[in-house]
Description:
α1 crosses α4 and α4 (about 55-70) packs antiparallel against α13 (about 205-210). The two termini are about 35 Å apart. The chain is globular, with a radius of gyration of 19 Å. By secondary structure, the chain is mainly alpha-helical. The protein folds into 2 domains: about 1-95, no CATH class; about 120-245, no CATH class. The longest helix has 16 residues, at about 35-50. It is built from 15 helices and no strands.
Amino acid sequence: MDTASDHFKRTVLALPDVRLRIDWLDHHVQGEPAASLAALLDVVIGESEISEPKAREVLVTIALWAAGVARDVDLERLRAAALEQRLLSLQRVIRKVPPSSLAPESGEPRVPDYGVGRELSLGERRNLARRADRHGFDVLLRDPHPMVVTELLTNPKTTEDDVVRLAAFRPARATSIEAIARTRWLTRGRVRMSVLLNPGSPPRVALPLVGLCTRSELQQVTRGADIRTILRITASELIERRPPMFGDEAEPIEGADIGLLQ
């Protein structure tokens, strides 16, 4: 018998790439009553937690939507419904996390020295970031302005190593990590783990990503002494729920969708 969760998974997976799936989910969330949608998402997320293959694949869409696209008002509606109905699986993905106790950097972020004898304007730095060559990439990666970061992330010459460096900066640059969350790069395991293991990553981005981890990645999160407590707790809960299975260490989430989210 076809259930509501089966229909939802089939609808999402019928779309050919992650970007279309996220856009469809965003539109769907805005048009559906929160109570029924929260219950449906909880079922699908719960299935993913016990490694049901199609649910695991759909979880990529749910997690990337929550981490980088979802409007605050939609998340708040779903959080309220999840609390009222005690939907624990959904709460593990979208629960609200208290602000970090880490002190933010003081003052305005410094524009790096581009070696031209003066400070480049924002427009000039954005133009450098969108150029289809790697000249000046090391300096561009240190530029704190989110518009520069956004241009750099869509540059076809940007590599996974570049994005890992952006995600791993300490202290964390929240705007850079939020920019990463709006791109295809969060489908990459190394990028995802760089975000999760950075104690200054915005929880709005980091929390939905925990469910995408392999068992060994979840264990790495639980052992991180400087990782937010809520992330370590969530990882521990997922380890308990996930059954042992052959090939769990082989990154079941990553694969066909790589490179499709633009």
